[in-house]
Amino acid sequence: MEDCLFCKIIKGDIPSTKVYEDELVYAFRDINPRAPVHVLIVPKKHISTLNDLQPDDELLMGHIALTTKKIAELEGIAESGYRTIFNCGKDGRQMVMHIHCHVLGGKLLHE
Ligand code: AMP
Ligand code: ZN
Questions:
Q1: Looking at ligand 1, which atom is closest to the CA of residue 29?
Q2: Does any ligand 1 atom lie closer than 6 A to the CB of residue 31?
Q3: Active centre residues (catalytic)
Q4: How many angstroms separate the alpha carbon of residue 63 from the centre of ligand 2?
């Protein structure tokens, strides 16, 4: 998707601080962190919102869930705990229309 911010980040056209990458996902630090650890996990495949998921995406979404665990281990928050969030649509306050999982850890700054 040419106009998608996160597709541009995945391609490297917009800089980001990478935390983890594999063939299916890219994970990087949120530019406006709301907790000491705030990482976004995005699928390399462009999917706009959770509403756009198809049955074929089941493995990919499972992979994102397993990646949250990997990020928590890498960031040293697996034991202390963390929060994972997918925002969807206007009322869900989704600002970037490429699905992403927020991983928030350390002391949460905002409830
Ligand atoms: P959401 O509201 O769920 O769509 O979250 C989008 C997130 O992307 C917000 O937490 C933003 O701070 C973050 N964000 C926006 N632009 C960038 C960027 N260039 N690099 C890293 N994170 C970004
Ligand atoms: Zn995209």
A1: 21
A2: yes
A3: 100
A4: 18
Output the CA 42–ligand 2 centroid distance in Å: 9
- The per-residue pLDDT for range 17-58, each reduced to its tens digit, is 999 999 999 999 999 999 999 999 999 999 999 999 999 999
Residues 41, 39: Cα–Cα separation, whole Å: 7
7 pocket-lining for ligand 1 (C-beta < 6 Å) = no
Report the SS3 class of residue 65: helix
pTM (2 d.p.):
0.96
Ordered by where they begin, the domains of the chain are 5-105 (3.30.428.10)
Check residue 48 and give left, alpha or beta (phi > 0: left; psi -120 to 50: alpha): alpha
Q: Read off the pLDDT of residues 85-95 as tens digits, 9 standing for 90 and up.
A: 999 999 999 99
